[in-house]
Amino acid sequence: MINLKEECGVAGVIIHDPAPPTNIVAFKLYYALYALQHRGQDSTGIVVFDGSKPRSIKRMGLVSEAYSRDTLQDIVGYVGVGHVRNATYGTQTIENCQPFVLNFKGGTIAISHNGNLVNSTELRDELESEGRIFTTALDAEIIGLLLVKELLKQEPVDALKSVMKRIIGSYALTIMINGDLYAVRDPIGNKPICYGEIEGGYAAVSESVALDTIKGKLVRDLMPGEIIVFKKTGEVESIMTTDSSFAAHCVFEYIYLARPDSIIDGQLVYSARERIGNELAREHPAAADIISPVPDSGIAAAIGYSRESGTKYLEGLMKNRYIGRTFILPHQEMREMAVRLKMNTIGENLKDKSVVLVDDSVVRGTTSRRIIDMIKDAGAKEVHLRVASPPIVGPCYLGIDMPTRAELIATHKTIEGICAAVNADTIGYLSADGLVKAIGIDKSKLCLGCITESYPVPIPGEKCYCDKQCKMDDFVPEGEKKEE
Amino acid sequence: MINLKEECGVAGVIIHDPAPPTNIVAFKLYYALYALQHRGQDSTGIVVFDGSKPRSIKRMGLVSEAYSRDTLQDIVGYVGVGHVRNATYGTQTIENCQPFVLNFKGGTIAISHNGNLVNSTELRDELESEGRIFTTALDAEIIGLLLVKELLKQEPVDALKSVMKRIIGSYALTIMINGDLYAVRDPIGNKPICYGEIEGGYAAVSESVALDTIKGKLVRDLMPGEIIVFKKTGEVESIMTTDSSFAAHCVFEYIYLARPDSIIDGQLVYSARERIGNELAREHPAAADIISPVPDSGIAAAIGYSRESGTKYLEGLMKNRYIGRTFILPHQEMREMAVRLKMNTIGENLKDKSVVLVDDSVVRGTTSRRIIDMIKDAGAKEVHLRVASPPIVGPCYLGIDMPTRAELIATHKTIEGICAAVNADTIGYLSADGLVKAIGIDKSKLCLGCITESYPVPIPGEKCYCDKQCKMDDFVPEGEKKEE
Amino acid sequence: MINLKEECGVAGVIIHDPAPPTNIVAFKLYYALYALQHRGQDSTGIVVFDGSKPRSIKRMGLVSEAYSRDTLQDIVGYVGVGHVRNATYGTQTIENCQPFVLNFKGGTIAISHNGNLVNSTELRDELESEGRIFTTALDAEIIGLLLVKELLKQEPVDALKSVMKRIIGSYALTIMINGDLYAVRDPIGNKPICYGEIEGGYAAVSESVALDTIKGKLVRDLMPGEIIVFKKTGEVESIMTTDSSFAAHCVFEYIYLARPDSIIDGQLVYSARERIGNELAREHPAAADIISPVPDSGIAAAIGYSRESGTKYLEGLMKNRYIGRTFILPHQEMREMAVRLKMNTIGENLKDKSVVLVDDSVVRGTTSRRIIDMIKDAGAKEVHLRVASPPIVGPCYLGIDMPTRAELIATHKTIEGICAAVNADTIGYLSADGLVKAIGIDKSKLCLGCITESYPVPIPGEKCYCDKQCKMDDFVPEGEKKEE
Amino acid sequence: MINLKEECGVAGVIIHDPAPPTNIVAFKLYYALYALQHRGQDSTGIVVFDGSKPRSIKRMGLVSEAYSRDTLQDIVGYVGVGHVRNATYGTQTIENCQPFVLNFKGGTIAISHNGNLVNSTELRDELESEGRIFTTALDAEIIGLLLVKELLKQEPVDALKSVMKRIIGSYALTIMINGDLYAVRDPIGNKPICYGEIEGGYAAVSESVALDTIKGKLVRDLMPGEIIVFKKTGEVESIMTTDSSFAAHCVFEYIYLARPDSIIDGQLVYSARERIGNELAREHPAAADIISPVPDSGIAAAIGYSRESGTKYLEGLMKNRYIGRTFILPHQEMREMAVRLKMNTIGENLKDKSVVLVDDSVVRGTTSRRIIDMIKDAGAKEVHLRVASPPIVGPCYLGIDMPTRAELIATHKTIEGICAAVNADTIGYLSADGLVKAIGIDKSKLCLGCITESYPVPIPGEKCYCDKQCKMDDFVPEGEKKEE
């Protein structure tokens, strides 16, 4: 499938100045993954390498459930990669748990991937035509197979470069090849990945919070198309695979996916959300008594809206901090209870108030409707929905979990229609320009595909604005598959 | 031990207008306990009764882990009680998991208790002297044994009244006696408990959020010393066991324990915390760039401080929402990682800023120190600690998890000493009067024992201000044990 | 209920010559319980005592599942008791997991009980009338409550004597009272219990195999009505509570319950079963090609039959050694598969053969029918069923898991009728006299209640032959229950 | 490694006359694997196919632990394969859990393999040289990769034939290729595999007991080198890939591995073991009081010995039927307890007796020594060890779990030396000719490698007697791997 939803977190740790092989790498990966848990809750894995053989732990579920002190202590090694995964329905099996580990003629490779390849079907067909097999549904396996083919011909960096010419889409990768660590970012810089210094070594992670957690010091984000090699000897080498300044950073990281305390492509997510709130207040002011967020992703934007508008910030919804797996009876009352369990209204804060409700986005509209109904049930006089993103009209092909076009409310309703559908008194969406301005990155370096329906990579049936920068033809050259 | 720390949540549900015995009661208890999870994470239990026999589930751990759809579906009954428990170290065993269930001559009783009896040792000795045995470390077992003695002599309400004359301390109880549900609150109203209407019946719970979750409608808090009977026939009867207007509601529910969306004794916790922040700003203003909370318990107070002071509210700390069990290596670096995992700084929001940090309380001072160090490491210029409660100088004997007097930093350091110890630039504690004013309940109706060292119940070695209202002599009359 | 089925195993271990408190006691109990696993598979528990506080592990399931190295290592103490339980349906809950532990005025008691009290209802009523409560469905709780009442008046041995005057039925007990270990056997010696020396101490266990396993040396069986005290100082004291030579050892221990390698009341179970086979061959010879057992309980009897008859012993049925929990689809074919999974025929050994099939007993007849059908399906020409016990016509009130009288095939069918019902060509039951002779214990010292319908203790509605030896009146003295 | 120990069980089930896709196939595989549990206890898996996609369950541990009713019900399909595995130390990870499932250009393949390839290193190198990768340590992955290469060129049967020309060693395979089921046996027939009819379809399994369990009817063993195709249409086709009558059935299946109720290559294992006992009695008679087996594998041979010798059969050792995982303290006494836990002596049967002890084999001699010591401790006067196999002097390269040559006691001690080392009074090994005669299969069709050190397949450094029949050159064509 071309649009697998794969919100994931990746991490890689290498220690070049250690005592003899130790489990410190495994523990640092464990803490880093814990900090990236919001990027994937379905499965997790850690693989470490001690110079001779890989040791791994893979499990379905949360980081807190998957690892034990005992199992972590057993996996010693000076380098390793880890992964958390939020899987598309139907692929949540132990086989699809990353990192993907393979042995080949040249040794051992472990790959953690965040992103989605848009030409995975073609690559899979091509590899299968060569008689190769697949044991998982992962893009990481495609990348692994391509990489091995190249590694038989050239050095790791050149091999990675060749692979990057073949794969189209989004990818932030941490890869362990025979004891060296590689961090790789796709040429459009769609998925975030940064690296930092840690005690005696380096770490590369999806978000800077993971560095904070393991007492690392953020050095910088990887550049679009950059490969960084962290050698077992302690050397660090950067290789740029593209001379283009083109980028297409995912705006949804800022809107809702990333943790607010992360710095992504130089922008603190929290600040970007505050500025989104400022913009939203300017674009869509409302005479109201309070500004209230949909927690947690709407909090910073609501604070920003409140500050800009001068209307008081007051929480009207409270999230239950202990929600794990819940189950419900097939019964309407039970379903409503399950919603209330996750988010409750603070009645007194809402009663007889005119409320500006700040939410990060409106996708299908069903959640917004449910929340606004709850707020009105709690006695709010008016609800003015302010959305911290423009209307979502295109699906995401690069890994963000979004529904099909038909399910997106903004594809088949007017703004007024949406307002009525979600039971708001007024609705205001942030403009695309407002969003871009708030994020603080030039529009030419952002992916706005879900908003503009124009994508940075070639997708069959969709508009592409990447012709100059990332021509499909560059990636899959005419003659290339001939001889295979 | 006289001061067991027993932060717990209780719930009781009865349905008088149901179809034949159903598992709806078990599911409602499950949702109610989920909403009360913040009151206890060590163990949980549900007992339901179908008119003939009790069925129960008890497990160590969180609500999300303890129950499954299958086990809940199996426990049918029209009435039941549930419990979540935060246990004192050493008592976290399956035997001490509540509700406490007993069978006696007159039938079946299940008891859920939140609170701490200060005369438990005496009562235990007395009961043991009669040849009675204990199979748990629970006050609920003491209550159960006393109750059974009385039930052999009188009707349930009178029996409960007699028991209430014997037990001193804090208790919010939901009790199932032979198919009727009883909610009981101690005569000083120390622990919160309220009740509401639900579809076809009633529920009594520690906090109103649990009613919200099960789509109940809050009727009111129980009065100090009140017993409410919810009969299987649908009748509801209130019995007042004290004519005194004395009360001693725990202020720590408002300061940090209760959920902000709960209404306790008529006060929305969120609003009380906001007003605490207002007061704090008035009492201890600070020239600063931002007001920042220690999440989550400091958020509403920080918002209040910000609004009163006019200084901007900006979050400088971010909590990891996915923290479950973690484990650490015996290694200094690992311990610091474990702290960072739970709470991270948002560097850009703090850098070069003068920060007013609003925390709910300072107990030992160690956590405050660690947080302020982190904030200064993140580049804050100044940290002005503003504490949403007065200095804690007395232990709690009524169930709040607090250390011994010797461990309380305010018992052996001056305010200046504390300021230096926690590495703050200035420190400001809310005054007791300010706290009382903010909560909005008359001082004579609040327990301020930990702040004033004067307690509402007689504690050996401590001052008591309860002489008129709750004389120890009333409870354990000289002659009383004679005839037994 | 008067006839709870409680096949259990008990163990007690005390070490008087140890290093400081150690976990060796916990580990020895663990191994002893492993050896007694055949006596109970539903739950298990171990409690050890270090002189100040008890530490326990209790879990549903098998010994292999319930304990871990970590949990066992944590429970240190020099004395302890353990239990495995095979529970009556509906009582398989964690609350009913033994040992039953209680705290009372005089300290801590832990009780492991194998057996069934026939006056439990009366005792429960009596205790409840005194205002006492029950938190379990266990006879051990009744025993504990009675014991505590006496311990407040007299020394442990006298207290135990007094309790033994009150309880009627079967009981083998290992009891820890404040750091001393007591082993107790009911006055009719119905349930087995023996003791032996172990390194640095003593152990008392249900069957001698448990001593073998922990490298103990069997000293002897307890006598009916004997109490043996194993003091923490190393002294061992025996107290006889009855001067009668009356006994009623359960014959079913020899027929099927006990392990063949155990010695019970001086008789090796294996040898008793062999002699049963000899007798059976003499009483019910058959012209056949082979003698084949129903494994495992029929093996020794079949060997005995073969040797006596001179007909060759050849296994026709094979048990699957790996059967744990299985589950089946609600589907006839599946049910048959589940049977085959547990026991398979060895076709070639049966084909065209005339088979003497030796089974330990015929209860409902359904299992026999199923097995004989399988054997005939496998091609056997004739099946001559030889049963290693007389027809079962009475229920067991002393703890053996047997159905109600109505379900016992021998209560409503003639021998010929049973033969037809189970599809055998001929059937031969061992005579009661043959059984007694084979066991090698005088008939006056055996309980044959299920065979003769005459019981060694008074059961309402049943004949009793115990008048002289264990008058109900002795146990429940005239005046004692008057006032209730 | 050339001599991985891979004792495994395989199963395949196809139903051609079903209702729409059903979970009956999954349940039949589950029952079949339960019956084959003795062949592998480390991990298990089931894969079923419904015509479009495979669904699988894989878990570490026993069949009783790995599957639940829920998980089995979810995997519907009309065809499937299953596996139980006994893994070499270090390879017990979830990745190595079979069946091995792969997707390739032509669809989906699932492979269950029992056996060991002796040229796996060469094949792995060859495949890696082509740039292929390995994600497991399994021979099944090698077979899968070779098979896919061939399937791109030819039809499944021809592809399998080509693969069989490349792989050398032992293999019994059940393979699902795109909805058809294939059963394959290596050209020397080393590993057992048979097939039978089941309701509406067919099953192929390692041992006939698995057919018995699922109510199947054994048709016959596969011939050496045979492929049988079970088509989704119900057709069954046999393809012989060798015209040689050469075979090398593993004798250890008869000696100890297979279940006694299985029929392998036409011989009932139970009968073979009885005849082994007869032979042993003739070759090594002993004047003794009793003949006693080491359970369970020595039972049938002991019965045979007893019958032939006329000396009475009496069990002197008893196995604990409940042994699961056990753990021991690092303590000598504990280790002895762990041994006793598994096997106990029946003292009375041994005391003052002269015992013929019949064991299946003597490998290192340590277990024999421990058992004989126990028997002598129990009071046996003399122990005459009779071994149901010849001295083991060569390692197994075909998958039986045996130690290195240096660890085999018979490689460095004389018969007298062994007798002394194991503390026996006399020792008698069955002769190779006696073994062959007892099994009832011509010597030219048995693998006696571990006894004769002459192997049926070429092993570097070992003698091979296969030159005519299975020339290495046939398998690894001239030009392909010159240098090896």
From TrEMBL, chains A, B, C, D:
Signal peptide: none annotated. Residues 8-233 form the Glutamine amidotransferase type-2 domain. One of its GO terms (molecular function) is 4 iron, 4 sulfur cluster binding. Binds 1 Mg(2+) ion per subunit. Its cofactor is Mg(2+); [4Fe-4S] cluster. Keywords: 4Fe-4S, Glutamine amidotransferase, Glycosyltransferase, Iron, Iron-sulfur, Magnesium, Metal-binding, Purine biosynthesis, Transferase. In the C-terminal section; belongs to the purine/pyrimidine phosphoribosyltransferase family. This is Amidophosphoribosyltransferase. It comes from Methanimicrococcus blatticola. The gene is purF.
